[in-house]
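User: We ran a pulldown and think these components assemble together. Before we commit to crystallization trials, I'd like a predicted model of the whole complex to look at. Sequences follow.
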Amino acid sequence: MERTAFLQNLANQLQRPLNTTEKPVNDWAFKPIEKHYSVMNEQQLVEALEQQCKNIHTDVVKTTSENLAKTLHEVVAKYGEGPVSIWDDPRFIQHGCQTLLDETWPAEKRTIHKWDAEQSRDRNFANANEAKVGVAFSEYCLTESGTVVLYSAKGAGKAVGLLPYAFVAVVPKSTILPRMTQAAEAIQKRVDAGEILPHAIDFVSGPSNSADIEMKLVVGVHGPVEATYIILEDC
Amino acid sequence: MKVSLFATCLVDLFQTDVGKATVELLETLGCEVTFPRGQVCCGQPAYNSGYTKDAKEPMKKMIDTFIDEEWVVTPSGSCATMFQEYPHIFKDDPIYAEKAQRLADKTYELTDFIVNVLNVTDVGASYHHRVTYHPSCHMTRLLGVKDAPLTLLKNVKGLELVDLPNSYNCCGFGGTFSVKMGNISEQMVDEKVNCAVETDAEYLIASDGGCIMNIDGRMQRRGETMRTKHIVEILTQHEGV
Amino acid sequence: MSIQFYDKKFKDTVKENLEDDFMRGAVSAAQNRLHNGRLKAVEELGDWEQWRNHGQEIRQNVLKHLDYYLNELATNVEKAGGHVFFAKDGDEANTYIRQVARDKGAKRVVKSKSMVTEEISLNEALEKEGCQVLETDLGEYILQLEGDKPSHIVAPSLHKNKDQIKEVFVDQLAYPSEASSEAGPLARHVRTILRDEFLQADLGITGCNFGVADSGSICLVTNEGNAGLVTTIPKTHIAVMGMERLVPSMKELEVLVNMLTRSAVGQKMPSYVNIITGPKRAEEVDGPEEFHLVILDNGRSNILGGDFQEVLQCIRCGACVNTCPVYRHIGGHSYNSIYSGPIGAVLTPLLAGYDDYKELPYASSLCGACTDACPVKIPLHELLRKHREVIVEKEGKAPIAESAMMKMFEIGASSSPLYRFGTKIATKAVKPFTKNNKITKGPGPIKAWTDVRDFPAPKEERLRDWFDQREKGEKNNGKNGIFTKFSEPTAKTT
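Assistant: Here's a predicted model for the assembly, 970 residues in total across the polymer chains.
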């Protein structure tokens, strides 16, 4: 059906002329007060995040920029043998992971699949699918729900966070926010500035799960079975 | 304080003791109680069955009967809710819109009236029995009266009040629902009775005649020893130990 | 599948389901858990009433300006490189989607859970196109294997137990018969099987929890990760959206996503909230090369601007279903509609007509639990009552006996003398049936009551008669006596 005719029908039902030009005023009468998390300092936010991650079957490890490579090495080792699928993201190099990627892991015969925009999508999917661990960099992290926010980009394949057995997200401490409200505000700013958003903004809270069989929680369904967040001291 | 009793059909015909106890309680608390004889049914059975036009006549009759009273008090959360619905039902009526609102503003469910108008939380009753309380749906959800009955019960000397499991579930009365969807209603009231029996209380207390008639009727049919009582029948007890 | 499951009468589906002990046990256990989970999750938000009021005003604002927001959404989706199709009904939507599948040469279709695509029987339409269509939500996948129907809008296979599920897996999915029938191993088996299907799929289909008008995004809310895979791997993604399911901006999206998941399952956030804006960008590797948004009316516009408009505020959380005492006993299949519970009883007759669904509005005690649970304050029980009013007063579909009784009620109850007379007569009329102050086998309208419970005998002396006597006594005594003088009748304790 043609768009205008579709919309005109709605206007008719609403018993008023069609409006596609005048933006409605959203002057909300109710502004729910979020009693939680809004008054926490950075340290309290991290503690609350750690607490919430226990509820969502996600491990939390804290590290510094100098130690990220070491910590990442340990976290990946925890999940056993198998390839690593990792975003092609300059932040890994900035925080000292070059040697880990180019030398340490190869020396251990661990295959590294860096997300590769030069390769075909099928090649990238096959790599991520055979990986034991997928490693990504979080844009924001939400304390209340234990959520990392991932933006899709050229080097940041969505499949890295979905296909491997375990999901590891590096969370810069400076990006930890109380809750989704603040992340939504940040995203809204980009919209208000006329930007087109990244193709995918994914809010991920721990490993995948389901309660479809007898309402019993199963952790690890189509997406990752396990998850770890590495909180990176960056400020 | 002049209080006009809106008795409700069930109390007028079947649960007269509840009506008498209501008068007793209010008078003990210093109210002068009258019973306007023009009162009929509040129209809820017809209204809830979709017969809005048919329900409006008795509703108007009720408005005219009670409109000049000082306070209108009823021992039923559900029927009090119905009076609160009147302004919505008559919102386009040039005469009754204003009257309906005026009536709604002065109508109270009994326990709500005692706690929030008379500001009494202890009516001086004593009753040495184990009981459980069923919060009726219309009273708690639609009328918004949740705490008043419990406040009053907690101050009854000797009363052991135990929680009713899944108390928020409807007992399955629902007016014509109880006969129109008899087999579903049966399952609902059975679960309610099961939960009540589980508490090992002597009485299940409620603040609505409909729920009481339904739950008690099912208890009797099943041969349960537990019985029901209207809350006012507890609040007027002065039992020694 | 369309809205309707089968050609059966409501009373028959209810009877069948009341006999299904497993289903009833599963539903009541789930309800108890979800009830407590929801209360805890909403309490954490602080002033929940304030949140509900806000949720309601957002949804009402969207409906009021639906033409503007839909146009804005469509314009922004296109700006981000997506295609938008406005579909008047299921046929138009299916025809468009089949055409896309044909153009793309798509043969393998993976779907994440979507009620709206069930509403329009999309799977059947694509199968006619020669496509293999796989549901990937665990619950939906289980139902698809058996050709079974969803019984809950959030947990579609709630009515099945793990042993039944294992049996199906052994028969159809080479699940070893000696393996465990626990949920974990069963789910993991599906993970393995569907992983290959995801990797080979060429068309991904999703519903849409919310469209975001000013960014041109759609938002999907899941726990299993399947929506992520459906919108990442196939080269084409088609999202089907009920036309009312949108919000003005990210800010309102945030509010409603929070309310949705807390109300649905008591979660602060689900594992995955995917916000998708257009197809993948040229330099990106994964994500769909083509993105289509199908905006579906299918009867919704008839609801707009009328007495039932508030039902369109629904965000499909299922809180009303999870709290409904009627659903608790009869389960989802009794409703004979993909939309069950209170929301189904309100929505189904509006979308599919009263002819097949005139009983649904009566499948409620009007207890208001649904209204109370609804995060966006849809007055569900009031809309159910409204349906009854339409059935009685506009459609003329009420049973004759009931209409006659209500007419008598009107005449009898609207005049005090007649009321006095009528109630007196009634007392006498039931006397022959009374034994030990109760009626166990009632006549006429009381029969249905006494089939289940005893009916109390009306009192010889009505309250109004007692008042007459009492006032006479007062006059004779010349006193304005207080109650204690007249309290003998209640002095008895049982």
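Residues 42-55 of chain A form the longest helix (14 residues). That may be worth checking against your pulldown data before setting up trials.

User: Thanks, that helps.
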